[in-house]
Amino acid sequence: xxxxxxxxxxxxxxxxxxxxxAIGHPFxxxxxxxxxxxxxxxxxxxxxxxxxxxxxxxxxxxxGLYRGATSSFVGVAFESSLLFGIYSRTKLALQGxxxxxxxxPQVIIPSAAYGGAIISFVLCPSELVKCRMQIQGxxxxxxxxxxxxxxxxxxxxxxxxxxxxGxxxxxxxxxLRESIGNAVFFSVYEYVRYYMHSRVKAASSNHSxxxxxxxxxxxxxxxxxxxxxxxxxxxxYTGLGPTLVRAFPANAAAIVTWELAMKILGIKxx
Length: 270
Known about the structure:
Elements (H helix, E strand, L loop, with lengths): L5 H32 L11 H12 L1 H4 L3 H26 L10 H31 L15 H12 L1 H4 L3 H33 L5 H20 L11 H26 L5
């Protein structure tokens, strides 16, 4: 990786974040709806994630699945840019500026945990706004007079009524989750990627872009599932099903986009 390619790492990460939201946001909306309505005494009861999805499409259309996506695209794109950029640059620094063949846990884990800790300060307010916008769907119990007109309005009103600490509610938990979660994600990604590439090279000399994409889908998807399986027992988490279903395609899209962007930008990967 060239010395002057630092900004390119952040650009590649930003594109990965856009892909994550485009693929994963509908699943996230369903999860939030299940968590909101199935825990209210007089709320709408959804039998499953599929029932919830069909209800949203019927009452709100496709745009209902992307409710709150504006703040997600901005927040996740910025967060992803920081995460992948910091991870790449920190990993390179810990390796002494030299590309090393084979994953090293003493490099991967601190790089990923550091990146996760930094992005938690962006992710916390972004997630809070996104969830509040998702909850106020057309079939919600939230009265029209109390609805937020936009993600910015939601953020401003939250700060007005709850103060700055209100927009960072749950910050410590988010920091811990992102540090540990990303250490797990990148560890799984790097080890599975190294193993699969080694097997492919041993089996065939024809290493195509299609094979790279397939490996990216598998490594990103498995890394995402490894994170979300840490969420807890199903009985303790309403909406865990859509979260697990989302984990594979959303993270697969992120990794494939990240690796493709790095290749286009001329960034050398280990």
